[in-house]
Amino acid sequence: MRWDAQALLQAPGDGSAATPALLPLAGLVRSVTTPEFAGITFHEVTAKSVLNRVPAGSRMPFEWTVNPYRGCSHACVYCFARKSHTYLDFDAGLDFDSQVVVKVNAAEVLRKELAKPSWTRPQVALGTNTDPYQRAEGRYRLMPGIIAALADSGTPLSILTKGTLLARDIPLLKSAAAQVPVGLGISLAMTDEALSEAIEPGTPGPRARLKLVSRLREAGLPCGVMAMPILPWLSDSDEALDALFASLAAAGATGVSAGALYLKPGTREWFMKWIAANHPGLAGRYRRLYGSGSYASKEYRTWLAGKVRYFKARHGFAFSSGFSHRDLDPREEEAEYPAGIIPEARQGHGEGNSAQHGGAAGAQQALF
Q: Could you tell me if 45 and 26 are in contact, meaning their C-beta atoms sit under 8 angstroms apart?
């Protein structure tokens, strides 16, 4: 069935008056549904700008981001970016999973922005808010144009994703890496397929993502792994952590960062509702562990840090510094970027380059 035939809102092409927008979204062209994506509506918008400056004072190791999509069909219950959807008058729960905003002109606008004399070619990060390789990318194909625009302009780039659709662009990424520094990262924090299907139902499963790590490494590309979030009482056992780091080592990950579940407002309410429905025996324990804040208790984070260090060392990541509990500052703990994600990282197995440090808020900020 043709995608165009599924438009709920079609921009007129005959000179007639514009159809009223269904939603107050700037630049809305049309809203689309299709049987291929049952239950999801795509709101196609034309953006005036797609380069986003990271707020001053951020711990992120990059200054600019691009996010071609807002909302995410991966539907990860724990996604830190959920609250960002409320800025569009959507809710942070089901709307975040099912109302996806698509910046259909992202590549064209980006190319124009990169051509400005004022652009000094700092690194641009993709995947800091919602996943650029969520399922809709198979239809919209925004990333090839974005990657090409960055590489052609001499701008280093990094991509963080759960989407195995990234494999489609391996040839393009290899070409880009010959022009500019490229960093790649896969988000994977568990090997339990059943748990993954329950809590991140729209994502490719752990086995598929591990295979993607191997494919990237076989192609000569770097690939760090963000093993976040580690879920208390669900994915933090010795068996779970051992299996995770063993699998990442076998896949050839260039580095790993790990951190505990982070429950910022918007995410917290949705996650707690899920826990109560799916693991009612854990609901009270989670409330006590997180109290009224976004972070697990200091005692838990200290305990988890020790576990992570042990299993990383056991599986060849002994020199990794992607899990920080130097001062048990939770803002640092979830925000370290492992070797392979930041473009300057050109190392093999394991880490140890201090240039990779200091970035963690990048995984926790909602940058549009």
A: yes
One-letter amino acid of 50: V
Average pLDDT, the chain: 85
**Beta carbons within 10 angstroms of residue 200's beta carbon:** 22
> What's the rounded Cα separation, in Å, for the pair 189 and 187?
7
Span 90-145, pLDDT tens digits: 998 999 999 999 999 999 999 999 999 999 999 999 998 899 999 999 999 999 99
Task: Give the predicted TM-score (pTM) of the model.
Answer: 0.86
| DSSP for residue 6 | G
Q: Which structure tokens are listed for 273? A: 């509702």
The SS3 of residue 30 is strand
- B/e letters for 4-36, b = 16+ CB within 10 Å, e = fewer, are eebbebeeeeeeeeeeeeeeebeebbbbbbbee
Distance between CA atoms of residues 30 and 61, nearest Å:
36
